[in-house]
Specification:
Elements: H1 4-36, H2 42-50, H3 53-72, H4 77-115, H5 133-156, H6 160-191, H7 224-230, H8 232-235, H9 241-264, H10 270-295
Helix pairs in contact: 1-10, 2-4, 2-9, 3-4, 3-5, 3-6, 3-7, 4-5, 6-10, 7-9, 7-10, 9-10
């Protein structure tokens, strides 16, 4: 476990980096976007289509853990039945949500290629095109079965105590993901910032990230994709040892790559993705600390 002094040092470094980058963004947002936007970017299109998986997989894995724990608590059939059903619904629902999300972007790529538009051109706020109902349901069911088999095989090797501990982690992971998504959605609505690809020809409707515009239908600030991608850090909570470290590093790298891709594809400004990355990281940190303190009463100096 990281020492408290190390945590404080990294927190200070992160806070300073956030302040510097957001200050820089006030000057470079528009010129940077104008310089790097490429709606035909395969890099931007790939992460636009698949980059948000961590948000959904936090919920999916949490639901799978709830089902596994319920199966082992058959001594309490009412509780086990309710928990198992809830876990299955959460897993099935979030798998369907992920298929809907990726399916919409994938269908947009196909449609763009068909009509001769850049592959990455897509509406980030509403699905203009989608997969057929049959294709959507088929992909959903296949993914649901594959994920369930994989996760349940992994959980079958865990002891009852380990699964119980994973269930506690799942509760905090779900709460962290939900809070991050809600905070992001609320800010999007209240800021009403025009996306780079929505700007008029003169770009006179560009506004600084410091200027909230109210609920006007525009949702550039902050970046939802970056928030969802950065939640890959939360997936490290379910691992141990070196695997946990690798998932943590992966979460940071994945969040950064998705952030860069959103600027490249013209869906967000630099400040949109920077704010989202650091806000999500802060939320993850708070819930990780809460989980630690509540499981070890007395160690925080507040509960004796």
């Amino acid at each position: 476990m990281m020492e408290e002094s190390t945590k404080r040092r990294w927190f200070l470094i992160s806070a300073m980096a956030f302040i510097v980058l957001m200050a820089l963004a006030t000057a470079v947002d528009l010129p940077l976007s104008n310089a790097v936007i490429d709606y035909g970017s395969w890099f931007g299109t790939f992460f636009q289509t698949f980059g948000e998986f961590p948000l959904y997989f936090v919920y999916i894995i949490s639901g799978e853990i709830a089902m596994a724990y319920a199966w082992r608590r058959q001594d309490k059939p009412l509780f086990a039945g309710s928990l198992g059903l809830g876990g299955f619904v959460l897993t099935a629902w979030q798998t369907k949500q992920y298929v809907n999300e990726t399916g919409s972007y994938f269908a947009a790529v196909q449609n763009n290629l068909k009509i001769g538009q850049p592959i990455g051109k897509a509406n980030s706020d509403s699905a203009a095109v989608t997969l057929s109902v049959a294709a959507n349901i088929t992909v959903w069911l296949i993914l649901l079965v594959l994920v369930t088999i994989s996760v349940q095989l992994w959980l079958s090797k865990k002891s009852d105590d380990q699964v119980a501990r994973l269930l506690v982690i799942a509760v905090f992971a779900t709460a962290a993901a939900w809070f991050a998504a809600e905070a992001n959605a609320t800010l999007k609505q209240d800021w009403g910032r025009v996306r780079p690809y929505e700007l008029n020809k003169s770009q006179s409707d560009f506004t600084s990230w410091l200027h909230p515009n109210g609920n006007n239908g525009h949702k550039s600030f902050p970046s939802g994709h970056t928030m969802a991608a950065t939640l890959a850090i939360v997936l490290s909570w379910f691992a141990t040892g070196k695997a946990r470290q690798r998932w943590f590093v992966f979460g940071i790298v994945w969040g950064a790559l998705v952030a860069l891709s959103r600027i490249r594809i013209g869906a967000h400004f630099f400040s949109d993705v920077t704010f989202s990355f650091f806000l999500t990281a802060l939320i993850i940190y708070i819930f990780a600390e809460l989980m630690t303190y509540l499981q070890t009463p007395g160690d925080d100096g507040l509960t004796q």
